[in-house]
Design a protein that fits this description.
Elements: H1 2-34, E1 39-42, E2 47-51, E3 54-57, E4 60-61, H2 63-66, E5 73-76, E6 79-81, E7 84-94, E8 100-104, E9 113-114, E10 118-119, E11 126-133, E12 137-145, E13 153-162, H3 165-193, H4 196-212, E14 221-222, H5 227-242, H6 254-257, H7 262-265, H8 272-280, H9 284-311, H10 314-325, H11 328-336, H12 340-361, H13 372-384, H14 388-404, H15 406-409, H16 412-439, H17 456-459, H18 463-466, H19 484-499, H20 502-506, H21 508-527, H22 533-536, H23 540-549, H24 556-577, H25 580-609, E15 612-613, E16 654-661, E17 664-670, E18 677-684, E19 689-693, E20 699-700, E21 702-704, E22 709-714, E23 719-726, H26 730-756
Antiparallel strand pairs: 1-13, 2-3, 2-5, 4-13, 5-12, 6-12, 7-11, 7-13, 8-10, 8-12, 9-11, 14-15, 16-17, 17-23, 18-22, 19-20, 19-23, 21-22
Helix pairs in contact: 1-3, 4-9, 4-10, 5-8, 8-9, 9-10, 9-12, 10-24, 10-25, 11-25, 12-13, 12-14, 12-24, 13-16, 16-26, 19-24, 19-25, 21-24
Length: 757
């Protein structure tokens, strides 16, 4: 009987496990259907005006009540809530900006409440936010601090409702746990039968990613200069998806909900991952950290793949991945600057080097040579989809590489392969490039010539900082350095090259490394304040390129990549010429230097000098965090984007009611005059907005006012409801279809068809 049970389990364990997992994932939704959601409204009767030890009933503070009191606030009575995710809508009136909302639960267990604070504004009358309770609480309070500038602050009502994402988040974590278990079960047999390298290398790649993610174990987000901007991009994608946009070109949450065309100019393909986590219901900080961890894992694998392909040695690929991913400038990008686009681009740069190297050095008659173009094309596509400025830098060094290798470039099959790289890159990204260049015909701050380069040479890093081995303070963190391992590699290569014979220097591999080393030195020079930017910007064409780069130390990204290539190539050559024990000692030295420097920077750098930021929803982030406002239409004064309502200035149109849902606005309009009238809606005037009669489908002319806000021409005698929303142009959709067809063709040609043969 026992043997039959064992045989039955062995035969049917997979379907039984699948059923159990489905049941587990379904449990949260069953609970949702059987539980009673919270829907609680709090008014002035359940609020107190508190100052010092005194309190009185009510939710209103006026100037007379606040006179002589610095700490007066409206505080709710204690609220009892079970664990879960809640939506809160606060309706208020505030005469002066500056009143601060916060939540607290003093007697709860550690980490029970996850909620943002926000500043109340006189041009808004309500705010909606989410908050998370990891445990049940009985003393939750909402506090509204008086601005202290006179006038009246009135809290009309607070409504708290259970969010359905309470259950989707539970299901997500159960699903993730099930997938991890399934992966372990699927790999255990393969690992048992595989060689040591096949077992160890995936584990080492995960460990490299884990080491690069050390900073993520902090409770909040540390440092991260541009963090608000990129968190708002994630939220913009989420909000756009909720409004039915795909892909999201105009993110609706920006600039007081006037919208911002981030999705047209700034590749955000990979930010859809954290945006989807936000849709599930995870806090913005958790979503962003999971995204950073995923990018570290992807970067570790891509670097391993690229450097192992170049050197034809898996272990050198692992060392290259460790050095590349723990390079100090990469960590500066991730954890100090919060330069999401740049560290995403970092991830794909090794594919460009790998693809070009194989195209220029592999035998064109060799089987599989015709697939090398795809490696480089994926690398360039990664840059286009993440950081256009990195494309510019990669383009400069690609041209220089082709000049240095001009004899190889003009070999027929190699030249055809390089042309295929260009065509494949265009095909993969046609859906992004068409809107990008279409909008680039319009005038924005990014292309209207208003950006200056007067500080660019001054902004370059000092030569003494290039080879900082240990991080010792806040000064110079923005620029970073190449780090300890690459500093050792830099000087070791010079030493070995000078000690090598003339015959060795003429060898193809050594000569190639020498050329790459020259390019790396050039990249380092361009990152410093010694490069003659002030002289070069006198030339119009070069000045335009300099404007795009903005900060010279961005070239550290190229330097790190090329120096890692040199170190990997040097290790491959040393393996041929020195004793095994010496070779292993050198490899160990590089690994220790890279790991120590990377972990030391994360442990000492950010944590010692910068406070943690805590964001759970994005209500606490200023919607005007667009940095330099590169994608704002030229001539727009963003300070005047404060009319969050539909209005009419010419007096011809009466607007009795309207609804604003992101960048979809509906307004009931009545024009009883004999002339056309204009209504202005709170949207920035990007091409693509369409206004139509919701009843008949008739479209109306869309114009813009003097501050580049959308205006709609309402015909004489019109009575009805007008809807204004963004629609992609037909040729944008055609470009998307063509890219999808090209991707499908590549998958069939190099995936499915390859397996058949």
């Amino acid at each position: 009987m026992k043997e039959k049970s064992i045989l039955w389990i062995k035969k049917y364990w997979k379907p039984v496990l699948a059923v159990l997992e489905i049941v587990l994932i379904a449990v949260p939704f069953i609970v949702m259907l059987t539980s009673t959601p919270v829907d609680l409204t709090i008014t002035g009767d359940y609020m107190n005006v508190v100052s010092g030890g005194e309190s009185s009933k009510g939710g209103t503070i006026d100037e007379a009540m606040a006179e002589g009191k610095d700490d007066i606030a409206v505080v709710t009575e204690p609220i009892t809530l079970k664990r879960g995710i809640y939506i809160m809508e606060v309706k208020y009136q505030e005469e002066h900006d500056g009143g601060v909302f916060s939540m607290s639960a003093d007697k709860d267990e550690y980490g029970a409440l996850r909620a943002d604070t926000f500043m109340m504004r006189n041009d808004r009358f309500s705010e909606v936010m989410h908050f998370w309770l990891n445990y049940s609480v009985e003393d939750l309070k909402c506090k509204f601090e008086y601005a202290g500038q006179g006038g009246t602050m009135a809290i009309d009502s607070i409504r708290i409702c259970t969010s359905k994402t309470t259950y989707s988040v539970m299901a997500f974590w159960i699903f993730l746990g099930c997938m991890v278990c399934n992966l372990i079960l699927a790999m255990r047999k393969k690992f048992a039968e595989s060689a040591f390298a096949e077992k160890a290398i995936p584990v080492l790649i995960c460990m490299i990613a884990l080491a690069a993610s050390y900073e993520l174990f902090a409770e909040g987000l540390v440092g991260q200069k541009d963090m608000d901007f990129h968190l708002y991009r994630i939220e913009g994608i989420k909000d756009g998806l909720l409004l039915g946009q795909f892909p999201v070109k105009i993110q609706p949450n920006w600039l007081n909900n006037y919208g911002y065309c981030n999705g047209v100019f700034y590749g955000d393909l990979f930010l859809y991952f954290p945006a989807l986590l936000r849709l599930i219901g995870l806090p913005i900080t958790t979503s962003y950290k999971l995204f950073q961890a995923a990018m570290n894992l992807l970067s570790a694998y891509i670097a391993y793949y690229s450097f192992s392909k170049i050197t034809k040695d898996k272990w050198i690929g692992v060392i290259g991945s460790l050095i590349f991913n723990l390079a100090q400038y990469r960590l500066v990008d991730i954890y100090f600057r919060g330069a999401v686009g740049e560290y995403e681009a970092f991830t794909f740069m090794p594919l460009i080097v790998c693809g070009l190297y194989k195209i220029l050095t592999d035998d064109p008659e060799e089987k599989g040579y015709g697939r090398n173009f795809l490696i480089a094309a994926l690398g360039y596509s990664g840059l286009i989809q993440t950081h256009i400025l990195s494309c510019e830098m990669a383009g400069i060094f690609t041209i220089l590489t082709c000049i240095l290798c001009v004899r190889r470039v003009f070999v027929k099959k190699r030249f055809i392969e390089l042309v295929k790289v260009v065509l494949a890159t265009i095909g993969l990204n046609f859906w992004f490039l068409v809107p990008f260049f279409d909008y680039f015909r319009d005038k924005f701050c990014v292309n209207d010539g208003s950006r200056d380069t007067f500080t660019i040479q001054y902004s370059g890093t000092g030569l003494q900082r290039v080879f900082h081995i240990l991080f010792a303070g806040k000064d110079g963190m923005m620029e970073g350095s190449v780090g300890a391992a690459l500093t050792i590699g830099f000087f070791l290569f010079i030493f070995l090259f000078l000690c090598s014979t003339k015959k060795q220097k003429k060898e193809t591999t050594v000569k190639g490394m020498g050329q790459v080393f020259i390019l790396a030195v050039l990249a380092i020079w361009m990152a410093t304040n010694l490069f003659p930017y002030d002289f070069l910007k006198r030339f119009t064409l070069i000045n335009k390129l300099i404007v795009g780069v903005q900060f010279p130390w961005r070239f550290f990204a190229v330097a790190v990549l090329l120096l890692t290539f040199v170190v990997c190539g040097m290790l491959a050559e040393l393996k041929k010429h020195i004793k095994v024990e010496y070779y292993r000692m050198i490899c160990a030295g590089f690994c220790v230097a890279a790991a120590f420097n990377g972990l030391q920077y994360q442990a000492v750098g950010d944590v010692s000098h910068f406070p943690e930021s805590f964001y759970y929803d994005t209500i606490g982030i200023d919607s005007f965090c667009q940095v330099s406002g590169e994608y704002v239409p030229s001539g727009t004064d963003v300070a005047y984007l404060n009319r969050c309502y539909v209005y009419n200035l010419d007096g011809n149109v009466y607007v009795p009611d309207y609804t604003i849902n992101g960048n979809i606005i509906t307004a009931i309009c009545q024009n009883d005059t004999a002339n056309d009238g204009l209504i202005t809606v709170p949207l920035l005037s990007y091409r693509g907005y369409v206004a139509k009669d919701m009843e008949t489908g008739e479209t109306f002319e869309v114009t813009k006012d003097e501050n580049n806000c959308v205006q709609v021409v309402i015909p004489a005698g019109f009575h009805g409801t007008v809807e204004v929303r963004f629609h992609e142009f037909w040729y944008w959709r055609v470009a998307e279809i063509l890219s999808l067809l090209y991707i499908a063709t590549l998958i069939y040609r190099y995936g499915i068809e390859k397996k058949k043969h």
